[in-house]
Predict the 3D structure of the following.
Amino acid sequence: MESFQLTQVIKHIETPVYIYRADTIVENLTFLTTTLSSWIKQKLLIRFAAKANTNRSILQLIAKHGAGVEVVSGGELWRALQAGIPAQDIVFSGVGKTEKDLDFATTEQIDQISVESIEELTLLASLSKNANLCLRICPNVMALTHDKITTGRSSDKFGIALEQLPEAFSIIKDNPHLNFLGFAVHIGSQIQSVQPYQQTFKILADLLKKLPDGLTVKRLDLGGGFFVPYHPHEKPFDWQAYAQAIQEELADFHGELVIEPGRFLVAQAGILLTKILYIKKTTEKTFIIVDAGMNDMMRTSLYGVQHQIVAAHPTQGHKTQRVDVVGPVCESSDYFAKDIELPFDLKQGDYLAITCAGAYGSSLSSTYNSRPLIAEVLIDNKKPYLIRESIPVDHLSTFEIYKALI
Ligand SMILES: Cc1ncc(COP(=O)(O)O)c(C=O)c1O
């Protein structure tokens, strides 16, 4: 983010604030639609995992540059449709879709419902409405990532166990409303090694060989989870090896492929800009207390991951100090970094940028401690645009009523 843009933004808007760069998002997406697509012989469809960043302007930007979306709730489906994303570009995953969600998805005739259990399939079949579906399988592979973002082991709640597929096939065959497209998988997030993907593709290839008579697979949805470096020393995801794994394992598959990148498209496009409220020195530590809290960006308190934090303006000299960067929320887990080096001359009122905050930042935020949902800004063509106003606490409290129900 050029600092002149940040100065302009700060003049018009209070911190903390999320700031995204449109060009980074478009560059990442274009890489997938052109370079990655050129390495893969099958047709490749990109479905952005909207949970990573659900802001309408971001969804619209992504749709404008050739991707659809993957949603995981009726609310996300509603937002995607509101953003103008065509139903034929929407995939709906999630283990707990309600009857209302399934009814909504089938009424809108979305492109793909990724069914995650026999029980969900039974409910979908009982609606007697035309539905395009993939069976999301549980391949039982270790994604070699953080435990809390691993989704492909048999101990995880996601997907249908391979042993249960015959039952799923017979429900599909007995129901003329169910249009079977193929299989979907998603084994986790922040996956660095291509090996778990390759292992998953092998399992899919094996399934293709064992299909019952009368069923064909037109589509394989390979999920998301692609590693994004949060620090300069981390290596980016090896897309070439990923494409090669697809070509090796799925060479005989001639249908279409879907991938569902979330973090990869938006993480590096965003920062959380925050102001230093106090620099508190104790006998043991120096705490930089900022105006952003865990409610605004909870990745550190939830997963223990530390984002790189930098001064948002030029600093003098090279002298640094060892600090913890913490928020104002009344929880010890409300911190963004521990024991990091920041410039020595930082002072109250200066700004810090928490980098790589474009994914699972705003979308995971809450109003804990009665703090507002913060504003979001998109820098598009070098100009900053407000894409979400801060949602103040007085607005939230208008929903707190006392009304007899019976
Ligand atoms: C089904 C599904 N697809 C795609 C994604 C996106 O993952 P990532 O942001 O790591 O690419 C997720 C994330 O949880 C998911 O659950």
About this structure: The radius of gyration is 23 Å. Residues 22-39 form the longest helix (18 residues). Residues 49, 52, 70, 93, 186, 189, 223-226, 260-264 surround pyridoxal-5'-phosphate (CB under 6 Å).
